[in-house]
Amino acid sequence: MELEDESYDFVVVANRLPVDSVTEADGTKGWKLSPGGLVTALEPVMRSADGAWIGWPGAADTHVDPFEHDGITMVPVSLDQTEVERYYEGFSNDTLWPLYHDVIAQPSYHREWWDSYVSVNRRFADRAASLASHGAIVWVHDYQLQLVPGMLREKRPDLTIGFFNHIPFPAYGLYSQLPWRRQILTGLLGADVIGFQRTADAGNFARAVRRLFGYETRGSSIRVPLEDGAERRSRHSRTVVARAFPISIDSASFADLAARPDVVERARQIREDLGNPKTILFGVDRLDYTKGIRHRLKAYAELLQDGRLDASETTLIQVASPSRERVAAYMELRDEIEMTVGRINGDYGSIGSAPVHYLHHGYPREEMVALYLASDVMLVTALRDGMNLVAKEYVASRIDGDGVLILSEFAGASDDLRQALLINPHDIQGVKEAIVTAVEMEPRDRKRRMRALRRKVIENDVAKWSATFLEELRRASHAGTAADTPEHETTDPQETNA
Ligand SMILES: O=P(O)(O)OC[C@H]1O[C@H](O[C@H]2O[C@H](CO)[C@@H](O)[C@H](O)[C@H]2O)[C@H](O)[C@@H](O)[C@@H]1O
Ligand SMILES: O=c1ccn([C@@H]2O[C@H](COP(=O)(O)OP(=O)(O)O)[C@@H](O)[C@H]2O)c(=O)[nH]1
Question: Which ligand number lies closest to the CA of residue 385?
Fold first, then answer.
């Protein structure tokens, strides 16, 4: 049977397919699994479920039929060049991304970007509606597709719909800037279960729902009145669950890689190639203004300037993988970071030694693990980050029980990883003290902290994350989305601002 004709009991809808197109040496085209937070998180789940993944192949005007890759059915949705500019680079990454990350960069509001966001969300929703079997579970992901749950519920009320937001959900004072704030909430409330990274994000969402619609929220439940349509006959409201489900990683696979002799050898070689410095500090991020790369470089440069770190025995490896390169804020950030790196190396370097080893590349997982193993101190200094899987990967890879994690309290990962050296990245003096503490930490203290961190990451892995989310979703589906409830008041009527 053609894949097109099949229907699926489990459908993932995400902005990106978990594959990148590759051209082999002989010119043939193929696909390979791509790195990235969402892909890393969902790949193991999809392999074990017989499901389909609907997503964009990552390049404009790419029309590809559904195909199978590594046991996952891929269903490409194509975007034309204007949609890439307006829906992806524009509304997703120049409106929602900065707004949801506490306006670290200024969001732009353009009506034509919004129109494109609506029509692309409609395309994804239509595709999911045509592929999902009767009563299927559909799991929609992330800020690019917040309208899909509502659109899908209208077309297919038989489905159980989950939504997971991988990035923060902002406080109402910021969210309320969004000219389309009501439409986005309506879209999200089409889901049965809405997952967030942190309890604070779920709280911000519930507050926005109360302020804009006056709906009652109690604990993690939100009562959404049914206004018209067939469901009205039997019920007055449906219950939507909105709560935190902190995402994680496939911890065991990182530990396995860290035990592989070739990866261990590669870690040794990295140290040797750098001249076997006494201390290697490591940062790896998409080149994004949310990651606090500038703050990290500033703290490091000041420590070299103060003489508290010696450039002849310390190296910072900074991998900044290319991301959203056509969005102006990202281009400006790249210029700024590369200028700063040049300045630090110029000021504190010498022949044969550079205090910052800067790499503008994306690396495969094996190399990531070798880098994790090679480094003494891991720097995660995000100004705001939904979770930050890198922090968890570092811990999972340190099967030797060594290494120190410096972690921003503004990354979701800090909720779980309390034994890291927690920092406020805006407090440069605090970041400097944490770096010195990490560099000077006694082996016993390092191992004690790492042991506690590893326990957390091993216990709470990505399999547990998806199982917990899907269990909540199934519960919602068995309960039916609505109870025969009387009309109700808002928990806090003064918050209503409809
Ligand atoms: O698809 P891109 O525009 O190239 O961006 C890559 C991904 O970045 C974001 O990652 C988030 O999800 C991670 C996993 O939950 C989380 O750890 C991290 O804190 C988030 O920033 C984005 O949410 C994804 O949709 C993008 O694919
Ligand atoms: O060169 C790189 C840089 C990053 N990553 C992966 O990209 C993901 C980044 O996820 P994170 O949650 O830290 O941040 P995001 O980029 O999703 O905001 C992690 O799985 C990294 O291992 C990678 O494979 N190669």
Answer: 1
Identify the CATH homologous superfamily for domain 251-459: Glycogen Phosphorylase B; (3.40.50.2000)
Q: What is the pLDDT of residues 234-253, one digit of tens each?
A: 568 999 999 999 999 999 99
CA of 462 to the centre of ligand 2 (A): 15
Q: Is the pTM value of this prediction over 0.90?
A: yes
CA of 74 to the centre of ligand 2 (A): 21
The topology under which CATH files domain 3-247+467-488 is Rossmann fold (3.40.50)
Query: Is the interface score ipTM higher than 0.95?
Result: yes
Pocket residues for ligand 1 (CB within 6 Å)?
Answer: 15-16, 36-38, 41, 142, 166-167, 247, 323-324, 385-389
Q: How do the domains of the chain map onto residue ranges?
A: 3-247+467-488, 251-459
| Spatial separation of the C-alpha atoms in residues 201 and 211, rounded to whole Å | 15
Alpha carbons within 13 angstroms on the beta-carbon side of residue 446 total 19
Question: What span, in angstroms and rounded, lies between the C-alpha atoms of 360 and 319?
Answer: 6
Among the bound ligands, the one closest to the CA of 254: 2
C-alpha to C-alpha distances, 98 to 95, 105, 110, 188, nearest whole angstrom: 6, 5, 14, 19
Mutate to test the pocket of ligand 1, among 39, 102, 167 (most ligand atoms within 8 A of CB): 167
Identify the three-state secondary structure at position 214.
Answer: coil
Each residue of 274-311: pLDDT tens digit?
Answer: 999 999 999 999 999 999 999 999 999 999 999 999 99
Q: What is the number of the ligand 2 atom nearest to the C-alpha of 166? A: 17
- Closest atom of ligand 1 to 41 CA is 14
Confidence category of residue 368, pLDDT binned at 50, 70, 90: very high
